[in-house]
Amino acid sequence: MVPTFGKEAMLSTAPIAAAFPAGVQDPFVLDAATTTVAWGKVEIARRMNAPLPEGLAVDEHGRPTTDPFVARALMPLGGERETSGQKGYGLGLLVEMLCSQLSGSLWSKEIAYSNAEGPQYADTSHAFMAIDIQAFRPLDEYAASVDEMFATLRNAEPVEPGQRVMIPGDPEAIALADRLERGIPLHPSVTDELRELGDERGVPYPG
């Protein structure tokens, strides 16, 4: 991630994750980068030889680009200053503070990534927190309240017919059910890479 007004990537994608259980409703499960997208989106665009949407990435000069092959860093969630990208930068820095500075490990700018030769000890860190719901309210009361809130959100009227209002975790649950039934779709370039890797290691490609 480039900091707001910055030219060079200083932070990672600084993902933040949180989950809240419900009673009978499916849980809230959030897992998101604090950059505009995860770097994997750039990799996918390169494989497909497709342009990136505007406002996601910058080139080596810190200028916005839609070319995945010249993209060198991601913008913070929100994009540029005019679209409140400083908020995503702030969230990313919050994650960085929780992970690196509290633990005394390296922060993103100090970490040696995979382009370094030989094995590297990255000294990356994570931060985890657990909340005892019953320290705040009775568990059955909480579950009933959350069920009502989640059901209200999921039953909200969509803008377009056929759309569906969801909460974090719903799209992934839908995708999981589809993948279990029909398998994982692979782009041809990924299939080629797997075949080549299998040939190098003597592992036959299935199917």
CATH class of the domain at 1-114: Alpha Beta
The stretches of 5 or more residues where confidence is low (pLDDT under 50) are none
By CATH, the superfamily of the domain at 1-114 comes out as Malate/L-lactate/L-sulpholactate dehydrogenase, NADPH binding domain
Radius of gyration: 21 Å
Q: Which percent range describes the beta-strand content?
A: 5-15%
Q: What is the element string, with H for helices and E for strands?
A: EEHEEEHHHH
Instruction: Based on the coordinates given, report the CATH architecture of the domain at 1-114.
Output: 2-Layer Sandwich
Broad shape: globular
Strand ordering within the main sheet: 4-3-5
Q: Please bin the fraction of helical residues.
A: 25-40%
Distance between the termini: 40 Å
* Chain-averaged pLDDT: 93
Q: What's the number of helices?
A: 5
Q: Biggest β-sheet, characterized?
A: 3 strands, antiparallel
Concise structural overview:
The protein has helices at residues 39-48, 85-101, 139-154, 170-182, 188-201; strands at residues 16-20, 28-32, 57-58, 64-65, 73-74. It is mainly alpha-helical and 207 residues long.
Overview of the structural elements:
There is one protein chain. This protein is mostly helical and 207 residues long. The chain has helices at residues 39-48, 85-101, 139-154, 170-182, 188-201; strands at 16-20, 28-32, 57-58, 64-65, 73-74. The protein has a domain at 1-114: Malate/L-lactate/L-sulpholactate dehydrogenase, NADPH binding domain (Ribosomal Protein S8, Chain: A, domain 1), CATH 3.30.1370. Helices cover 34% and strands 8% of the residues. The strands form two sheets. The protein has a three-stranded antiparallel β-sheet, with no helix packed on it. Strands 1-2 form a two-stranded antiparallel ribbon. The chain is globular, with a radius of gyration of 21 Å. The mean pLDDT is 93.
